[in-house]
Design a protein that fits this description.
This protein is of the alpha/beta class. It has ten helices and nine strands. Strand 2, helix 1 and strand 3 form a beta-alpha-beta unit. Helix 1 runs parallel beside helix 2. The longest helix is centred in the middle third of the chain and has 18 residues.
Length: 256
């Protein structure tokens, strides 16, 4: 297995375990994080012994969204380029993968990490975990597939409330609303995720891949255009004065 800086990857009994490994940053994503997740996914896919993939985060968070500390003070971020070259390719690769992907959401899951979790095929959540959409509160729009997945999974009214109001969505409510397959006690999540992956790994891989492809065809129609629209609008917002002000506030808080 290749050693990555931001991602850990291991294979046991037909399951590849892929985890964001930036616990000191609550697993906030850099551009490199998205690239390494995609590379690790490709590595797992190339291994014929791998029949399922588990995606999670090391430590107490699944992912805190995009790491704003990677933006330099005063920099105007080209977020459309970030999405085009780093995050959208990861979402596309996950949806196109032959592998059934299980997201084990072990803690806070915010921003881009929500889109990446929902790009999986099965979502399990620890009871203390939650989804959080902070975008509008920092003068941005949801991206990384958030508008695609949430609108289709929740319907317009619930998706609008979640993305516009920016309230945390608990694991229990996520289960009620259809964003998760199951919710388990925090300490039971690793075993529950392993059990689901073991069940998937024991199935015929061609049948699994065909079923995933059919579900994707039915559910993801128009996904490419939606990802492109997220990219374009986020690029405009990232260059707007309001976002520049939010970045300045972010670095001012870090200094205080």
């Amino acid at each position: 297995m290749t050693r990555y800086e931001d991602v850990s990857l291991s294979v046991v009994d037909g399951t590849a375990r892929m985890a964001v490994n930036r616990p000191d940053k609550l697993n906030a994503y850099r551009n490199e994080t998205a690239d390494q997740l995609r590379a690790a996914l490709a590595e797992a896919e190339a291994d014929a012994s791998v029949r399922a993939l588990l995606l999670t985060g090391e430590g107490r968070a699944f992912g805190a969204g995009y790491d704003l500390s990677t933006i330099k003070p005063g920099e105007v971020p080209a977020l459309d380029d970030v999405l085009e070259h780093h995050f959208n390719p990861l979402v596309r690769a996950m949806r196109a993968s032959r592998l059934p992907i299980v997201a084990a959401v072990n803690g806070p899951c915010a921003g881009a990490a929500v889109g990446i979790a929902l790009a999986a095929d099965i979502v399990l959540m620890a009871r203390a975990a939650y989804f959080y959409e902070p975008f509008v509160g920092i003068a941005l729009a949801p991206d990384a597939g958030n508008t695609l997945f949430l609108s289709r999974m929740l319907g317009r009214i619930r998706a609008s409330g979640m993305m516009l109001l920016g309230d945390r969505l608990s694991a229990e409510r996520a289960l009620q609303w259809g964003l998760a397959w199951d919710v388990v006690d925090d300490g039971e999540l690793p075993a529950a995720a392993d059990a689901v992956c073991a069940k998937l790994a024991a199935l015929d891989p061609d049948a699994v891949a065909a079923t995933k492809r059919l579900i994707g065809s039915a559910a993801d129609t128009g996904a490419a255009a939606q990802l492109d629209l997220e990219r374009d609008l986020q690029g405009d917002l990232g260059r707007a004065p309001a976002m520049k002000a939010r970045i300045a506030e972010f670095f001012a808080r870090r200094k205080s």
